[in-house]
């Protein structure tokens, strides 16, 4: 869903409750199913600033006022903005006078006074490129039959250029089929090509955070006990064709702990998976990691310079968000 840089290594993003320091095992249905994901942002994201061609030359009103790429516009003048439609309605009455634009920048509210520029066609413009939603294909990690809550991706839905987590306005997951694969190569991450059936609604998205997306849904399957991820042989569940989930061998090379969170280095060892995809590809984010018969984590990133390797997240870190999802429900 996005490209990120972590600790100097270029990566492509491929979506347990605790008591003290002891992880509490529970039974969850592992995923591996491809999901169609659609999310609207809470506000309108500035995808870029651009010049306005006027009779006297090019000007960039928004940029000159201090608005940046990645800002989330939440208000134009006195009108709240939560979608591109709201934005269009708010700027219809521009006449060249200054207008206040309120944005969310890294969690802080900022306000800018922007002077619109009149383009050669007579329209008054702010010089903004906007985005209010995102769609793509990811992989289901788990479903908790006891709560009706699912988790997917293992990372946030973020802006592909800024890397910022997109603020959730509304979102849904749908049934999806994998219809093709762009094989990963050194320097170029591969991708699953998916077809989303928007008539086949599966659930909502209630949380979009660094550990994945979460919401209410219903899935069937055989539950597995959760466990702690460790170095050694393991496998992942993922969909490479249609809606069929298969299991492929990997190895967990290293387990890193930072600020209480676990990140794991994984390498694909299954010849069949390497032959089909080159290793880990975009769209496999959230593929559950199974080790010794237990659900222990999910795939999150692929190394752009080595598609057979990437990173994962522990299932305990993903499950820490479930109580938040229950409150949101």
What report would you give on this structure?
- The chain has helices at 61-65, 84-91, 271-277, 315-319, 322-328; strands at 2-6, 9-13, 18-19, 22-23, 27-30, 34-49, 52-54, 57-59, 72-76, 79-80, 99-105, 108-114, 117-118, 124-125, 128-144, 149-152, 168-182, 191-204, 207-209, 212-216, 224-225, 232-241, 244-258, 261-268, 288-291, 294-303, 306-314.
- With 329 residues, it is mainly β.
- It folds into two domains: 2-40 and 135-328, Thrombin, subunit H, CATH 2.40.10.120; 51-126, Roll (Pdz3 Domain), CATH 2.30.42.
- A hairpin with a 2-residue loop joins β1 (2-6) and β2 (9-13).
- The longest helix is centred in the N-terminal third of the chain and has 8 residues, at 84-91.
- The two termini are 25 Å apart.
Helix and strand arrangement:
Elements: E1 2-6, E2 9-13, E3 18-19, E4 22-23, E5 27-30, E6 34-49, E7 52-54, E8 57-59, H1 61-65, E9 72-76, E10 79-80, H2 84-91, E11 99-105, E12 108-114, E13 117-118, E14 124-125, E15 128-144, E16 149-152, E17 168-182, E18 191-204, E19 207-209, E20 212-216, E21 224-225, E22 232-241, E23 244-258, E24 261-268, H3 271-277, E25 288-291, E26 294-303, E27 306-314, H4 315-319, H5 322-328
Antiparallel strand pairs: 1-2, 2-26, 3-4, 5-15, 5-21, 6-9, 6-15, 6-17, 7-8, 9-10, 9-11, 11-12, 13-14, 15-16, 16-20, 17-18, 19-20, 22-23, 22-25, 23-24, 24-27, 25-26, 26-27
């Amino acid at each position: 869903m996005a490209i990120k840089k972590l600790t100097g290594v270029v990566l492509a993003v491929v979506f347990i409750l605790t008591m003290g320091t002891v992880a509490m095992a529970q039974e969850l249905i592992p995923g591996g199913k491809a999901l169609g994901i659609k999310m609207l942002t809470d506000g309108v994201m500035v995808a870029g600033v651009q010049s306005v061609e006027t009779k006297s030359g090019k000007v960039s009103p928004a940029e000159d006022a201090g608005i940046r790429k990645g800002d989330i516009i939440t208000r134009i003048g006195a009108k709240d903005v939560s979608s591109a439609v709201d934005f269009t309605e708010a700027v219809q009455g521009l006449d060249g006078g200054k207008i206040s634009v309120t944005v969310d920048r890294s969690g802080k509210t900022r306000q800018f006074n922007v002077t619109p520029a009149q383009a050669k066609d007579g329209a008054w413009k702010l010089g903004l490129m906007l985005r209010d939603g995102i769609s793509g294909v990811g992989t289901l990690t788990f479903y908790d039959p006891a709560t009706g809550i699912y988790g997917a991706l293992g990372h946030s839905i973020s802006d592909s250029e800024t890397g910022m987590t997109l603020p959730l306005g509304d979102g849904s997951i749908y049934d999806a089929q994998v219809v093709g694969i762009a094989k990963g190569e050194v320097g170029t991450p591969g991708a699953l090509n998916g077809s989303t059936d928007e008539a086949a609604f599966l659930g909502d998205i209630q949380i979009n955070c660094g550990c994945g997306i979460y919401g209410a849904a219903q899935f069937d399957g055989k539950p597995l006990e959760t466990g702690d991820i460790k170095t050694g042989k393991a496998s992942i569940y993922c969909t490479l064709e249609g809606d069929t989930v298969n299991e492929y061998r990997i190895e967990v090379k290293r387990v890193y702990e930072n600020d209480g969170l676990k990140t794991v280095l994984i390498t694909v060892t299954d010849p069949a998976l390497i032959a089909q995809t080159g290793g880990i590809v975009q769209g496999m984010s959230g593929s559950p990691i199974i080790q010794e018969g237990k659900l222990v984590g999910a795939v999150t990133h692929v190394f752009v310079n080595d598609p057979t390797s990437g990173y994962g997240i522990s299932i305990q870190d993903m499950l820490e968000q479930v109580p938040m999802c229950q409150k949101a429900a």
